[in-house]
Design brief:
Length: about 150
């Protein structure tokens, strides 16, 4: 009986160690994926700003629409960044077109994310993480634009 108890403890410890190793390995993969996502979000912000400088809000609409013709996560980032820039442009008197209404952007995003099979909670957490990276990136771009301004 005593031997069986030790074997069960050893199996439990081995199982716990295997779980920890698996969690650490998947955490490394998650960190790598998070870095890739952050890089793509930064590129989407940069691309959106360049398109806006060259073509205004109509350029953003075309760029996002073209991207969604071959849907991928990058289109989601481009859409969200372009939406924020288009909303910001309203402060200069530019009217916000229906394409960049929050409901329209959200619907395009939900449609894309529904296909991944992760579920609503996982998608919400994903969007929250993307939003945090996008906020930091847009603020950094804004700060660089106005650095040295009176």
């Amino acid at each position: 009986m005593l031997f069986v108890c030790h074997v069960m403890k050893a199996k439990a410890i081995a199982c716990l160690l295997a779980s920890i190793c698996l969690a650490l390995l998947s955490g490394g993969v998650a960190a790598k994926e998070a870095n890739s996502i952050a890089s793509d979000v930064k590129k989407a912000v940069s691309d959106s700003l360049q398109v806006y400088k060259q073509g205004g809000v109509s350029g953003l609409t075309s760029a996002v629409s073209d991207c969604w013709r071959a849907p991928r996560d990058f289109c989601l980032y481009l859409d969200f960044a372009s939406h924020r820039i288009a909303v910001g442009a309203t402060y200069t008197g530019t009217a916000l077109g229906e394409y960049f209404y929050a409901a329209s952007v959200s619907q395009r995003g939900r449609t894309w994310l529904a296909s991944n099979g992760r579920g609503q909670l996982a998608n919400d957490q994903y969007l929250y993480a993307v939003d945090q990276v996008m906020n930091r990136t847009l603020i950094a771009h804004r700060d660089r634009m106005f650095k040295g301004s009176p």
